[in-house]
Amino acid sequence: MSNQNTVSTCLWFESGGRDAAKFYVSLIPGSTLDTSADGPEPMVVPFTLAGQRYSILNGGDMFGQTPAVSIMVTTSDQAETDRLWDALTADGGQESRCGWLKDRWGVSWQIIPAALPSLLGATDRAAAERALQAMMNMSKIDIAVLEKAAANHI
C-alpha cells in the first residue's frame, strides 16, 4: 500500500490571499507560488516557502489570524534578519517582542537568527541568562547585543 498523504499548513484569510502568497515567496529563497499569478482571485492559493507547503484559503471574515500559529524563519545572519523584519513590518505590519511580528495581513512570524538558540542554550548558564534577559527587551533580535550580553560586556 502506497502512502500518498501530504501535509501542509493552511492559513485562513478574509481575502487577498494571492497577494500575500506572492509577497511571501518573494521574500524567502527557494519559494514558489503554486498557482496562477493572474486572473480572478482563487479560493485556495497554494505556495511553497523554502520547501514547506502552505495554502491560503480566502474564506471570508469568519475567522481571523492568531499568534497561536506563526511562521518561523531561521535566518543566517543579522543582514537577513533585518531584511525580513523590515519587509514584513512594512505597510502596516506590527513589531512584537522577542523576534515576533505580525505582517500587514495579520499573520504572525518569528524571525530568529541561527545564533539565538546557541546563545540561549549555552553551557555557561549565566551567559545564557544574560542573553535571555537582553532578548526580553528586544523586538527584532540583535545578534551583536545578545553576544555582548552573553560575554557580560553590557
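Next protein, fold it too.
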Amino acid sequence: CLRCHNDRGPVSTFAARGCSGCHEDVHRGELGRDCSICHTQENWRPDERVAGHEGTRFPLVGAHASLACWRCHPGADTGDFVGEDPSCVSCHEKNFAGTTNPDHNAAGFPRDCEQCHISTSWTGIAFKHPGFSLTAGHAGLDCSDCHISASFSQQTSECASCHLDDYQGTTNPDHQGSGFPTMCESCHTTSSWQGATFNHSNWPLTGSHLGLDCSECHAGGVYTGTPTDCYSCHASAYQSTTNPDHQAAGYPTTCENCHSTISWQGATFNHNTWPLTGAHMGLDCSECHVGGVYKGTPTDCFSCHASAYQSTTNPDHQAAGFPTTCEICHTTTMWQGATFNHPQFPITSGKHKNLDCADCHTTPGNYMAFSCIDCHEHRQSKMDDEHKGVSGYVWQSSACYACHPDGKE
C-alpha cells in the first residue's frame, strides 16, 4: 500500500495526474501525458504499439515485435519516431557485409534482404529462385554446388552447364556420338538423372513399340534421319509372308493399311474398294483373289458366282435370260432366299401375292412374256359381255394389264 499511499501527500493528488503521478515520464513530456496510448496496466511494455505499427511502412512481425522501441528508434525516449528508414539493410548492414556463405558483397547480392530472409529468423533463408525452379534433386543443394564462382548473377540455367560430364560420359545411348541435343530436360527430370523418358513426338511409340530399346530401331547409335515408315524396319517380314504372299501379289509397302502396332499378326484390311458384308466377311483372301492375284480382281457378283447362276433351275436363270447383275435379287447374307423387286408392282399384291414366277410367266425361258387369261376363272364369253362398249378391249393378257395394272376391277 505504501507504494501509492505514503507521506508525500493525499493519494487523490497523485491520482489526478494519471500514470505520471506515480511513474517517471522517460519521454520528458514529448509524447503527452496519456500513457495508455501505448502502455497498459497489465504490462509496462508498449504492446499496443505492435498493433499500431500496422499502419506504418514497417509492420512489426516476427523478431521485430519483441524489440524495444529504441532499438530501431534511437530517439524514442524523447518521442522521436519519425523518418526511420524501413529497409532491412538500414539496421542489418553489418550482417550483410559480414556474411561469407555466400559472400553477399562479393557475389553482388541485392541489398533488399527480404528476397531471401524473413523477420522470424535471420538464418534459414527462403529464396525464390527466379528463372530456374529448385525442385526435387535441386531443392537440397547448397548455393555453392551450382554457383561455384563468387558471381551469382552470371549463372546459366541450362542443364548442360552443370551436367556436361554426365552428357559426355553416357554410353546407353551415347549422347555425344549420337548427336543428342544438350537440352537435358527433353528426357530427364530433376527427380533423378536415371530413368529418362523421351516424348517421341515425331513418331509416337504405341503398342509393341513402347517397350523397345532405342537401339532396336536406331541401329548403330544413329538417331538423326531414322525413317519412320514401317517397311524400313519390317522389310523381312513383308518379304517372307506367304499367307498371302505380299511380294508376289504386289502388296504396297504401307504396312499400316492392314497392320497395327499391337501385333504383326491378325491384320485387318479396310476393303473400301468393295465392302465386305454378310457372308463375304469371313472369307479368306484367296477365295476371291485366286492365284495370289490381287490387282484387277473384278467386283461384280457374276465373276465369282457364274457357276451358281448357270446351275440354278428354280427358275433357270440361264434359260430364262436373267441378267447377270445378281444383286438385283440376291444379297451378301446368303445365296438362297432371293427377293425380286417386281417392276410391275403392285401386280404382286392382293390375290397376286406369293405366286410363283411360273404362274404368270408361262413361257419357259422368257420372263418378258406373261399371261393373265390362262389362270383366271373368267370365261372369254363372260368378259366379252362385261366389256361391251369398252374401247380397245381385246381378250389378251397385255390388254388386261393395260387397264388393270393393280389386278383390280
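About the second fold: The chain has 15 helices and no strands.
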